[in-house]
Write a structure and sequence with these properties.
Blueprint lengths: L6 E6 L3 H14 L3 E7 L2 H11 L3 E5 L7 H11 L4 E6 L4 H9 L4 E4 L4 H13 L7 H11 L14 E9 L9 H20 L8 E6 L6 E6 L2 E2 L2 E2 L4 H5 L2 H15 L4 E6 L3 E2 L3 H15 L6 E5 L16 H13 L2 H18 L3 H19 L4 H16 L8 H12 L10 H15 L6 H8 L3 H12 L3 H19 L5 H7 L5 H12 L3 H6 L4
Parallel strand pairs: 1-2, 1-3, 3-4, 4-5, 11-13
Antiparallel strand pairs: 6-8, 6-11, 6-12, 7-8, 9-10
Helix pairs in contact: 1-5, 2-3, 3-4, 7-9, 11-13, 12-15, 13-14, 13-15, 14-15, 15-18, 16-18, 16-19
């Protein structure tokens, strides 16, 4: 039996983590695809295409030195049999269409989903010049607000059901590696229920579209057409069937138990030109109304609902005064009772997530300002850790004790227990931080690993090292960042930040300047020797 030919693939992407992710997804599809080159900029990609003459090129659009459009244009002229695939963000949709005119066979939206990669690779195997798929065209138009006159003929006479589904608690634009993995797992468990249990007529073709800068996803149902117009008359009543949405919610909750689910949906279908506006209404409602640990269906009629001001996002004056007095008196048990009581009241009242977040961060700043035990950089790390704990919690009271421990670490540095060899403990902590500084290490993780409370870990480490563990972690990361800037000028600041444990480039830039006194750009022009 003859052996099937292997497709030789070059992948071009200037972000290392995305590059590795794309390559891994290609390799998982099967042995028919072999990665023969990985390029970090457009010029490098073009040189690889010339030298290696691959069968397939996957390329990002926005890359240093030479963009992906130019790479595809040159490849189409020089190697007409080369199959190109564009990998782009939603904002690059117009460029992606240009790339398709230059001969690209398909395009994938970031972040690349495994099922989308598999579909594209099968198209390449079958030799189909697929162009943009129905799902990808719909996703780009839904999220980029393309003008109505740019409507593809495919959607001209269609109408759409649209809902926004949040599995777990709403996380906004937070994007830590641990959090991203958590939501990926939830969607692996709940994706089928999101599509199959939606309370829409059996006719619509359904698809999932990831909401940008969020862990939520849009569920889109495209209605069939009859005689040139979408048949929606009998379906409108179905759309307003509250029982159907409640059944959908129960199915989703069961698939991701014990975590909550929020579904936001309209009561009517919309035309193609109205999709973007409706998506924005649903997104705003989710951001404003999601409640941590609480499953719910939010329905928007027509153009959406007006929202009142709601509860105050800040602690009451008497609450602030009481907590400040407790911290200054050093009464740890009283502080625990007060904070757990506050969190319990927030859950009982079903205060929205956006308000709970602000109050938690206000609590952290309040106890910090009364004691000044930690640096601003350490407080910044604790803020991120507090929010991650909240986002990954099945319920608000269920994570209250962990939230309190983090707040306590900023209020007190003593502990009821004593450790016989605190010097050895500090050494173990330092060794662990040195070996894992590029990973998302948190104070909670150190507490779990060494079986002591966050405040005791902080106390012991500061006693023997002169600084707290979080500040020590920051110093390790900054030293490595400075080394990378000096020795690898070809790396972007975003790449360097990711290499030392900061997925958010803006946060990395702020920490670097706060720690070194110099901005990243200034330091790169004249790195310290």
């Amino acid at each position: 039996m003859s052996k099937q030919p292997v497709f030789r693939v070059v992948v071009a992407e200037d972000e290392p983590m995305i590059l590795n992710n794309i390559c891994a997804k290609i390799e998982r599809v099967g042995a028919r695809f072999e990665i023969v080159g990985r390029a970090m900029n457009g010029l490098e990609a073009w040189e690889m295409v010339e030298r290696l003459q691959p069968d397939v090129l996957f390329t990002d659009i926005r890359m240093p030195i030479m963009d992906g459009i130019e790479v595809i244009r040159r490849a189409a002229e020089r190697f007409p049999d080369l199959q190109s695939v564009v990998v782009s963000g939603y904002d690059d949709f117009s460029y992606a269409r240009l790339a398709i005119r230059y001969g690209a066979k398909d395009y994938l939206l970031k972040p690349v989903e495994a099922e989308d990669m598999e579909t594209t690779l099968h198209k390449l195997l079958e030799g189909k010049p697929a162009g943009s798929s129905e799902r990808e065209l719909l996703a780009a138009s839904l999220l980029s607000g393309r003008p109505a006159e740019d409507c593809p003929p495919l959607f001209a006479n269609r109408t759409f059901w649209l809902a926004l589904v949040q599995l777990g608690n709403y996380a906004g634009s937070s994007a830590s590696a641990e959090l991203a993995s958590f939501y990926d797992e939830l969607w692996t468990r709940g994706g089928s229920a999101a599509l199959d249990a939606a309370p829409w007529p059996s006719g619509p073709t359904r698809t999932l579209v990831r909401q940008p800068r969020s862990s939520a996803r849009f569920v889109v149902g495209m209605c069939e057409t009859h005689g040139g117009t979408a048949d929606t008359g009998a379906n409108e009543a179905k759309a307003t069937d509250e029982a159907g949405y409640e059944r959908w919610l129960r199915a989703l909750c069961q698939s991701v138990s014990p975590y909550p689910v929020t579904v936001v949906a309209g009561t009517d279908t919309v035309a193609y030109r109205e999709l973007f506006e409706r998506s924005q209404q649903l997104s705003l409602a989710l951001e404003r109304e999601a409640v941590p640990g609480h499953a719910q269906v939010l329905r928007l009629a027509g153009a959406g609902q007006a929202h009142g001001s709601g509860p105050s996002p800040w602690l009451e004056t008497n609450e602030q005064h009481k907590i400040g007095t407790i911290v200054q008196s050093g009464k740890k048990a009283s502080l625990r009772t007060e904070i757990l009581g506050l969190i319990g009241r927030w859950e009982e009242r079903r205060d929205p997530q956006r308000i709970v977040e602000k109050r938690l961060l206000q609590l952290l700043q309040l106890v910090h300002q009364r004691t000044l035990l930690l640096s601003e950089d350490e407080i910044g790390h604790l803020e991120l850790e507090l929010l991650d704990k909240l986002y990954m919690a099945p319920s608000l009271t269920g994570v209250a004790a962990e939230l309190y421990e983090l707040l306590e670490s900023a209020a007190f540095v003593d502990d009821e227990r004593e450790h016989r060899d605190t010097h050895e403990l500090a050494d173990h902590i330092a060794h662990y931080l040195s070996a894992n500084f590029a990973s998302p290490v948190t104070l909670s993780e150190l507490s779990d690993k060494f079986s002591f409370s966050p405040s005791y870990v902080t106390k012991v480490f500061k006693q023997h090292r002169g600084i707290g563990p979080l500040k020590y972690l920051i110093s390790l990361r900054m030293e490595e960042a400075k080394r990378l800037i000096a020795r690898h000028p070809e790396l972007s600041f975003k790449e360097i930040g990711a290499s030392v444990g900061y997925e958010d480039p803006n946060y990395f830039s702020r920490i670097f300047k706060s720690t070194t006194g110099t901005s990243l750009s200034d330091y790169s022009r004249c790195p310290a020797k």
